[in-house]
């Protein structure tokens, strides 16, 4: 059985997109995904692949960790 650590990835895709004055559709086209993918990512309901994270960071000309942040979960079950 797969252990759930409760970890997640937060992101600032919305902030970078708005500062660039882009629509979700425009960003999606630039990084090769659907508008829906950008929408759910901005809402925190989708963790992008590493490849997509790098595409987005490269598009905005920043490091991946400036847009995406690892959030360690609190797995207290096995302690």
Automatic annotation (TrEMBL):
Superkingdom: Bacteria
Domain HTH cro/C1-type: 13-67
UniProt entry keywords in alphabetical sequence: DNA-binding
Alphabetized Pfam families for the sequence: HTH_3
MF-aspect GO terms: DNA binding
Protein name: Helix-turn-helix transcriptional regulator
Organism: Paenibacillus lemnae
């Amino acid at each position: 059985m797969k252990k759930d650590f409760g970890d997640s990835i937060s992101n600032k895709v919305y902030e970078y997109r708005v500062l660039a004055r882009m629509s979700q559709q425009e960003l999606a086209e630039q990084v090769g995904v659907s508008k829906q993918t950008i929408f759910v990512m901005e809402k925190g309901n989708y963790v992008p692949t590493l490849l997509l994270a790098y595409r987005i960071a490269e598009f905005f000309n920043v490091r991946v960790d400036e847009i995406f942040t690892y959030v360690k979960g609190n797995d207290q079950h096995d302690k």
